[in-house]
Specification:
22 strands, 2 domains, binds zinc ion, Rossmann fold, 7-stranded mixed β-sheet, alpha/beta, 20% strand, Metallo-beta-lactamase, Chain A
Length: 477
């Protein structure tokens, strides 16, 4: 495939990138770097969302899993690490490199994902729908546990020798705890390729902003918000106003939140408001087993002064102004239904598509004194999206429920917007020779590629799925 009759022979050992996922979509991050001597997979994510995407997780993996020498994980979100147990099930046996924060969060998230896959397969068998008979899980909780044995933790900013003349350096990405961009330094030929992973925002209250690149010959950058600028937000003032209004009416506040990171961001803002006397010291119930476990990981990172955390968090008990009450068992969760008066319940999932928050919505959404605060992106068609759009009747657990509570969206996104993505790419000096824009809806990726080209004259490409590209400058010599 490398010879071209009209052109020169291309070395079989030309280093290449192959975009195995997150091309034209925001999930399934998997990029294969092949030097000819070694194969490194950067991220190993699940395809998520619409059915045709989820079905892609069942496609044969495009290269032999046992031929991959190492996997590098940028962070613990499922669209970046959630395929790993499957890859191990299919034969991958190499090391998995990631930061300590990513390892600890992935332990929680992957085990839960395996458990969920098993539950969904069992559910499909009970109700007789599946393309497999019997329905099979993509992987089990045991598969997830097994893949965790391959994990090797690395420090930020310290090069790791991957063998075959390739080093990897994990740079802070400020997106969630443990999140990193990855720089791969190839020695023969000398090429530095930097993969953004998911980039956070400079205003994350707990994590430091994304690190600069230094230099990159090739950059692979995400584009979740490649066509958007975040508005100037005042989440604390907006939260205070919404919650105070509900309390004055005798109501409560319900906040659906993603279990990892978004919960910590919400808790931080509430903590500041209570500390400054802008909100009364009411009980804050954190009703999600995963969120409570993730919170322990964040607390440990603060205690051990993790370098990705803002210095003011070092050695500190997080959210100490809050009367925070973790809710773990289902019975404790149900008991909350009998409580009235001023209080805050934070529960997953963030788009109210499932999880315990659905029960709380059923119980609270009919009361006009209450406020429901959505704190992140609501994918079109999800229950959270319907609520935010002001639908008067919302279907939950098979029945319709009238919405009388006040519904608000206060954006606390932890994804960089277009300007912030451009800022990151252009910290490279000199600018990258080629930028591959992936991990976005097609319009978002194209908008970022266009902006990089128009403002900086960069060669910015939106690669197709499974496209292979050479990383070295192609010459006719
Ligand atoms: Zn992410």
């Amino acid at each position: 495939m490398w010879s071209d009759e009209k052109g020169p022979m291309v070395s079989k050992h030309a280093p290449t990138l192959r975009f195995l996922g997150a091309a034209g979509t925001v999930t399934g991050s998997r990029t294969l770097l092949d030097t000819g001597d070694t194969r490194i997979l950067v991220d190993c994510g699940l395809f998520q969302g619409r059915k045709h995407l989820r079905m892609m997780n069942w496609d044969p993996f495009p290269v032999e899993p046992e031929s991959i020498d190492a996997v590098l994980l940028t962070h613990a979100h499922l669209d970046h690490c959630g395929y790993l147990p499957r890859l191990v099930r299919l034969g991958f046996r190499g090391p998995v490199y990631c930061t300590e924060g990513t390892r600890r969060l992935a332990e929680i998230i992957l085990a839960d994902s395996g458990h969920l896959q098993e539950e969904q397969a069992a559910h499909a068998n009970r109700h007789g729908y599946s393309r497999h008979d019997p329905a099979l899980p993509l992987y089990t909780e045991e598969d997830a546990q097994r893949c965790l044995l391959l994990f090797n933790t690395v420090e930020f900013d310290a090069p790791v020798d991957l063998g075959s003349a390739v080093d990897a350096t994990f740079l802070g990405a400020g997106h969630i705890l443990g999140a990193a961009s990855v720089a791969l330094d190839l020695q023969r030929p000398s090429i530095r390729a930097v993969f953004s992973g998911d980039l956070g925002r400079p205003n994350h209250p707990l994590l430091l902003p994304p690190e600069t690149i230094d230099h990159a010959d090739v950059a692979v950058v995400e584009s979740t918000y490649g066509d958007e600028e975040h508005l100037e937000e005042h989440p604390q003032a907006d939260l205070a106003e919404a919650i105070e209004t509900a309390f004055e009416m005798g109501g409560m506040a319900l906040i659906p939140a993603f279990a990892v990171d978004r919960t910590e961001v919400v808790l931080h803002h509430l903590d500041r408001l209570v500390a400054e006397g802008r909100l009364p010291d009411v009980p804050v119930f954190l009703d999600s087993p995963m969120a409570n476990r993730a919170l322990e990981v964040y607390q440990d990172a603060a205690t051990r002064c993790s370098p990705e955390m803002r210095p003011e968090m070092h050695g500190r008990r997080l959210f100490r102004s809050l009367r925070l009450e973790p809710i773990r068992s289902v019975d404790e969760s149900k008991e909350l239904n009998h409580r009235d008066g001023p209080m805050i319940i934070i529960s997953a999932s963030g788009m109210a598509t499932g999880g315990r928050v659905v029960h709380h919505l059923i119980h609270r959404v009919g009361d006009e004194r209450n406020v429901v605060i959505m704190v992140g992106f609501q994918a079109p068609g999800t229950r959270g999206d319907r609520l935010v759009r002001g639908e008067h009747n919302v279907k939950m657990l098979g029945g319709y429920h009238q919405v009388h509570a006040r519904i608000l969206r206060i954006d606390m996104s932890t994804h960089a917007d277009q300007s912030e993505l451009i800022d990151w790419v252009t910290t490279s000096s000199p600018l990258p020779r080629t930028v591959y824009v992936h991990h976005g809806e097609p319009e978002a990726s194209q908008a970022l590629a266009d902006a990089l080209h128009e403002e900086f004259g960069l060669s910015a490409i939106t690669p197709a799925k499974d496209e292979v590209v050479r990383m070295d400058p192609v010459s006719w010599t």
